[in-house]
Target: Multidrug DMT transporter permease
Amino acid sequence: MAQAPQVDRERGTSSQRERRWLTTFGPVIFLLLWSAGFPIAKTGLHYASPLTFLSIRFALSVGVLLAVCMFKRPQWPGTARAWTHLVVVGFLVQVMYFGLSYLSMTAGIATSVLALIVSLQPILVGVLAPKFVGERIGARRWAGLLLGLAGAAGVIVARGPLHAESLGPVLLAVGALIGITGAMLYEKRLGTAQDPLTSNLVQYSVGFVFCAPMALAFEHTQVQWTPTLVATLAYLVIGNSLIAITLLLAMTRAGKVSQVASLFFFVPPAAAVLAYFFLGEVLPSMAWWAMGVAVLGVAIATWTPRK
Model:
C-alpha cells in the first residue's frame, strides 16, 4: 500500500515528460511530416498515374489500419447516420482534396503553389461559416481574407503569366480547396465524434472505393515499381497517414490546439523549401514576399485572442 503514492508520482512524472516532449518536439516533427507530403507525393507521381497512385496509397492505409483495429478493437459507429457522416467526409477529403491535389500535381502545378492554395482553407471556412454554421465574421477576418487572397494571387502571378494550359492545374487545386473546406464545414455542422482509428479506416476505404474504379476506367494503371516509389508510398502511408495524424491528435489532447492550428500557417513556406531540395523547384523572390503576405492573412483571419 505504501508504494501506491510512489507509483502515482512516477506516472505523473512520465505524463509530464510526454507532454513536454509533445509541446517541444511534436510541432516541429508534425510540420516537417505534413509539409514534406507535397513534394514526396509529386515524386511518387512520376511512377504512377494520380488516381492509380492514390488507390495504392489508400489500399495500403486500409490494410495497416485493419491490422491495428484487430489489435486495438476500437468502437465502431453505432448508427446509420454516423456511418453516413464518415462516408461524406471521406469523399470530400480523400476523393476531392487528395484526388484533385494529385491531379493538379500531375498537371504541372508547383507543390509550393498547391500548398499555398489549400492552406487558404481556414479563411474560406471563416467566410462561409456564417451561412452554414451561424458564426459571425468580423472586420479582422475580412482583412485576413483579402491579404490571403492577394498573397495567393501574387505567388501564382510571380511564377509567370497564366495561360489556358496552366490555368487547369490551378483550378484543380481550387477544387481540392473546396473539398477540404466542405469537409470542415460539414464536420462542424453535422459530424459526430468517432474513434480516430475507425473513422480513418472508413474514410480511406471510401477513397479507395471511389478512386480505384476511376483509375481503371480513365487511366493506364501501369506502375513502375522502383525503390523510390516504394519509399514514397511507405512515407505517405506511415509518415502522413499514421504518424502525422497521431501526432496531431496527441498534441490536441495535450491542450495545444491553438499551437497546432498555427502550424498550418507555416506549411506553404516549409513545402516550398522542401520542394526545392526534393524537386529542384525554385520560387522567384517576389513569390516569397507574396507567400509571406498570404501566410500573414491566414494568421490574422484565424487568430483567436486568449480569454
